[in-house]
Amino acid sequence: MAVKKERRSFLGAALGGFTALGGVAALGAMKRSWDPLPSVKAAGFTTIDLSGAQENVLNVEKWRGKPIFVLKKSKDMKANDRDVIIGEDRFHVSIGLCTHLGCIPAYVADVHEFHCACHGGQFDASGEVLKSPPPSPLVVPPFKVDGTKLVLGEEGEEYKKMKTAGLVA
Ligand code: FES
């Protein structure tokens, strides 16, 4: 009888241990997906490593006191001339302030849109206006592409091309 009881408590402890390990692993995975992308701030520049970015997950960085939206586009999202192309991937990068009166729009991942709660303005995943009152698309901050990294605050070739074409503001 005592042997049976001991065996049962051993099995219970082993099962509990496995369950706890599974829980810790799941929490670790969840935390990794919530963590912001690694970024380095120095002398007015913010460098963001995009190699770990996940499709359709909005990352909000900070650059010179402003929120910066960084969104890795999924294949079903429309390409746009304002996309930042890094390797095979397309990113939407913008200053995360509504061009109406400066509220911070929320990203609604299910519909791939930014919705501004202040006056109902809406933007698509490229920052183009879907619904007024915003008068213009979300603004693209000065950036430079450096391998898999994005340097905010520096005007690289890609940014200069967009600027010349009148696409950044
Ligand atoms: Fe966004 Fe007015 S501030 S709609």
Keywords:
alpha+beta; Rieske Iron-sulfur Protein; 2 domains; 4-stranded antiparallel β-sheet; 31% strand; binds FE2/S2 (inorganic) cluster
Q: In a nutshell, what does this entry contain?
A:
This protein is an alpha+beta fold and 169 residues long. It is built from two helices and twelve strands, in the order H-E-E-E-E-E-E-E-E-E-E-E-E-H.
Number of strands: 12
The number of distinct helices, counting runs of at least 4 residues, comes to 2
Radius of gyration: 22 Å
What would CATH call the homologous superfamily of the largest domain? Answer: Rieske [2Fe-2S] iron-sulphur domain
Low-confidence sequence ranges: none
Main sheet: strand order = 1-2-12-11
Distance between the termini: 79 Å
Query: What is the CATH C level class of the largest domain, in words?
Result: Mainly Beta
Derived from helix and strand composition plus strand pairing, the structural class reads: alpha+beta
Per CATH, the architecture of the largest domain is 3-layer Sandwich
Mean of residue pLDDT values: 85
Percent in helix:
10-25%
> What number of structural domains do the residues give?
2
What percentage of the residues does DSSP assign to strands (E)? 25-35%
